[in-house]
Amino acid sequence: MSTETTSLNGVRSLPRIGDKAPDFTAQTTTGEVKFHEWSQGSWVVFFAHPADFTPVCTTELVEFAKNKEFFAGLNTKLIGISIDSIHAHVAWVHAVKEKTGVLMDFPIIADLDTKVAQQYGLLHPGESTTAAVRAVFFIDPNHTIRAIIYYPLNVGRNLEEVKRVLKALQTADKEACALPVNWQPGDKVVIPPPKTLSDIGKHDGKEGVEKIDFYLLKRNLN
C-alpha cells in the first residue's frame, strides 16, 4: 500500500485508490482539524466543491447536510473543502441556513493557499486553475482511500450514488464479497470466484446461492 502521492521525479501525483489519505492540519468552519486524528476510527466522505455562493455547490452541500444522519449511522464523517477563506465559508453557511433552513454543520476546510487541494490533486488545469473540481474521496478507518469519484465544474454529483458506494464498500468488507452491477442494499452479492480446481462446485446446492456459471455465483446476505 502506497503512503505517498509523490512520483519518483518529485512531482506530486493524484492520490489513488489504496493510497494512504494525505494528513493535514487546516482551519474549518468547526475549528482546526488535524485530519488523521479527527478521522481516527471512522469512515470519511471527503468532498471538494469549486466555490462558495455558487448555485450547484449550494444544492450539493445542502443535500450532504440533509443526509447527515444516514452517514452518521454508517460511522462516517463528512468534511468539505474549497479554495475559499474561512470568512467566506462561515458567511455562506449562515446564508444557506437563513434561506433554506438547512445547517451545513460538518467542517468545511478553508484552503486559500491550495495546500490541501494540491495534496489531494483537486486542481485540474484543463478544468480550472483556481477552483477545485468536484471530487469525492471515500476513506476508511485506517485512512486508506477506497474509492474516488470526479465530476466537472458544471455537473452536480449524485448523492444517492455517494451513499450507495459507501454502503457497498462497507458491505464488501463485512461480508468478504464483491458487488455486481447496479447493486443496491438488500440485493444479492457476488461470491469470490474459485481459486483452485477443488473450489469449483463447493457452493452448489447451498440455500440462497444463485449459480450462473462456475465462476459467477451470487448469494443473499444473512
Key traits:
disordered N terminus; 2 domains; Glutaredoxin; 222 residues; three-stranded antiparallel beta sheet
Low-confidence stretches: 1-11
Determine the fraction of residues in helical runs and give it as a percent range: 25-40%
Order of helices and strands: EEHEHHEHEHEEHEEE
Biggest sheet descriptor:
5 strands, mixed
The CATH superfamily of the largest domain is identified as: Glutaredoxin
Question: Can you tell me the CATH topology of the largest domain?
Answer: Glutaredoxin
Strand order in the sheet with the most strands: 5-4-3-6-7
Our measurement of the CA-to-CA distance between the termini, rounded to an integer number of angstroms, reads 31 Å
What can you see in these coordinates?
- With 222 residues, the protein is α+β, with helices and mostly antiparallel strands.
- The chain has 2 domains: 25-157, Glutaredoxin; 176-219, no CATH class.
- It contains 6 helices and 10 strands; from the N terminus they run ββαβααβαβαββαβββ.
- It has helices spanning 35-39, 55-66, 68-73, 86-100, 115-119, 159-175; strands spanning 25-28, 31-34, 43-48, 76-82, 108-110, 134-139, 145-151, 189-191, 209-213, 216-219.
- Strands 5-4-3-6-7 form a 5-stranded mixed β-sheet. It has a 3-stranded antiparallel β-sheet with strand order 8-10-9, with no helix packed on it.
- The protein is elongated.
What's the short story on this structure?
This protein is of the alpha+beta class and 222 residues long.
Secondary structure: elements and pairs:
Elements: E1 25-28, E2 31-34, H1 35-39, E3 43-48, H2 55-66, H3 68-73, E4 76-82, H4 86-100, E5 108-110, H5 115-119, E6 134-139, E7 145-151, H6 159-175, E8 189-191, E9 209-213, E10 216-219
